[in-house]
Amino acid sequence: MLKLFHFICLNYVLSSSSFVFSKLPEAYTFLNTIVDFMPVIPVLFFLLAFVWQAVVSFR
User: Fold this and answer.
1) CA torsion angle for 26, 32, 34, 38 (degrees, to 10)?
2) Do the domain assignments include residue 57?
3) Any transmembrane segments, and where (predicted)?
4) pLDDT of 10-54, one tens digit each?
5) Which of 14, 16, 34, 58 is the most exposed place for a label (fewest CB within 10 A)?
């Protein structure tokens, strides 16, 4: 599981730094960090589901 998480993070870092689809307009450049982090959010919800199941099963 740790190797999979490491692989996902490594691919995200490599793809976000070397391959850019488009740039935000100048008025929205302060949102760059949020936009870069947004693709990771579904993965965090997926991991949260596993943590929630672990907590519920130990009751």
Assistant:
1) 110
2) yes
3) 38-58
4) 566 555 555 556 787 888 889 898 988 899 999 999 999 999 999
5) 58
pTM, two decimal places: 0.46
Compute CA distances 5 → 8, 11, 12, 47, 55, whole Å: 5, 10, 11, 10, 20
- Give the Cα separation of 4 and 10 in Å (integer): 10
Number of independent structural domains in the chain: 1
